């Protein structure tokens, strides 16, 4: 799975190319996270607007990114999860671990606040 990236100063917005994140592509997503952290920026907005389905392996890949981004002094913010994806995030009680926003604009604003996330 490739991540399509778009740079906003030191923040990178990543959009998965595929509509499903599951066991068939979760390992690739983990590799893509590490590539983005090293080559682009550890300040990441993951736009899930095009992802219509995710399983526990896919959620695990996102948590992998969340854990590993801290090694690069960065952060991942999740935006625009579709209803099924949001429901699984809620069922897995990941809302307290993941910073979830309705839009890229909201996540960008949060990155640029003076509350310790300013970059």
Describe this structure in words.
This protein has 119 residues and is an alpha/beta fold. The chain has a single domain (3-111), classed as STAS domain (Transcription Regulator spoIIAA, 2-Layer Sandwich), CATH 3.30.750.24. The protein is 38% helix and 24% strand. It is built from 4 helices and 7 strands, in the order E-E-E-H-E-E-H-E-H-E-H. It has helices at 26-39, 56-69, 83-91, 104-111; strands at residues 3-8, 11-16, 20-21, 43-47, 53-54, 75-79, 99-101. A 5-stranded mixed sheet has the order 1-2-4-6-7, sandwiched between helices. Strands 3-5 form a two-stranded parallel sheet. Strand 6 (75-79), helix 3 (83-91) and strand 7 (99-101) form a beta-alpha-beta unit. It is globular.
How is the topology of this model organized?
Layout: E1 3-8, E2 11-16, E3 20-21, H1 26-39, E4 43-47, E5 53-54, H2 56-69, E6 75-79, H3 83-91, E7 99-101, H4 104-111
Parallel strand pairs: 2-4, 3-5, 4-6, 6-7
Antiparallel strand pairs: 1-2
Helix pairs in contact: 1-2
Order of helices and strands: EEEHEEHEHEH
- Segments where pLDDT lies below 50 for 5+ residues? 114-119
**Count of helical stretches:** 4
Distance between the termini: 28 Å
- Let me know the largest β-sheet: 5 strands, mixed
Rough outline: globular
Task: Assign the structural class, choosing from mainly alpha, mainly beta, alpha/beta, alpha+beta, or little secondary structure.
Answer: alpha/beta
Query: Order of strands across the biggest sheet?
Result: 1-2-4-6-7
Please give the radius of gyration in angstroms. 13 Å
Strand elements, count: 7
CATH class: Alpha Beta
CATH topology: Transcription Regulator spoIIAA
β-strand percent reads 15-25%
Looking at CATH, the homologous superfamily is: STAS domain
Report the mean per-residue pLDDT as an integer.
92
- Tally the structural domains: 1
CATH architecture: 2-Layer Sandwich
Helix content bin? 25-40%
């Amino acid at each position: 799975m490739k991540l399509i990236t778009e740079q906003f100063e030191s923040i990178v917005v990543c959009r998965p190319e595929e509509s499903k994140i599951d066991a068939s592509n979760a390992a690739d997503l983990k590799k893509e996270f590490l590539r983005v952290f090293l080559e682009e920026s550890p300040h990441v907005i993951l736009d899930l607007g095009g992802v219509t389905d995710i399983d526990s392996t896919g959620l695990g890949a996102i948590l992998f990114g969340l854990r590993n981004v801290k090694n690069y002094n960065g952060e991942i913010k999740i935006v625009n999860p579709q209803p099924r994806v949001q429901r699984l995030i809620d069922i897995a009680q990941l809302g307290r671990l993941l910073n979830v926003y309705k839009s890229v604009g909201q996540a960008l604003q949060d990155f640029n606040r003076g509350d310790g996330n300013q970059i």
